[in-house]
Amino acid sequence: MDARRGQEAPTDLLTEVRPAARHRVPARPRRCAPTGVARRPALLLSALLAGGVAAAVLGVHPPVASAGDSSVLEVQEALLTGDEGLELKPQASVTVAEAQARLQEVAASRAARAEAEAAAREAARPKFVLPVDGARLTSGYGSRWGTFHYGIDLAAPMRTPEYAAGDGVVLRAGAASGFGLAVYILHGNGDVTVYGHMDEILVEPGQYVDAGETIALLGNRGQSTGPHLHFEVHEGGEDGERINPLTWLRQRGVSV
User: Fold this and answer.
1) Is residue 45 within 8 Å of residue 82, measured between CB atoms?
2) What is the C-alpha separation between 152 and 53, in angstroms, rounded?
3) Which end of the chain is more exposed for a tag (fewer CB within 10 A), N or C?
4) Per-residue confidence (pLDDT) for residue 82, from 0 to 100
């Protein structure tokens, strides 16, 4: 047995026990936002929107940025501010008074244009017309068969349209002795034109008609020997002198 058993072992035989050096974890480097984030917020916004749409389709919830995730927060801040490379201009506007003035200007312009167009149409339309287009004169104004014929007869096929010879107001429209059916129209100068023997009347008393407007369909009613229009002119009113319709029409630029 070793006489030195139980004695303290020499220091050279002991392995020097030193505390193990602590392993230092290197600090996590801070990630910076990608270069040009603030300069291209539209591209980043498009990328984030595209990612959000894809996540919604796949049913995946994107991670929520935490306070410690500096890169995501910086990108979001860049998208919200976008203060680098973006020029902000004041909103353009006008006053209410200016807007109202512009409205009045446009309304006045449109009214003037509509008035000019109406005047052009009025100037272009005929003021007097032949009561029946393509008619044949079969009897004139004057003595006939021992009596006096106070109008002219214009023959045409049954139910040919008959027109107002000039602008006026319908005085009478309906049954008339000798005419079967008749229409009386008062014109602006006081003259009255008479239309007889029609098959059907298309106007009524009090109605305003323009020259050339259809008032009836030609017929053979009353004392008639065939389809025709009997046309008279009463000068100065319904009870005025019955004058030659050919002369009256000719003075207004209408020939038969």
Assistant:
1) no
2) 87
3) N
4) 54
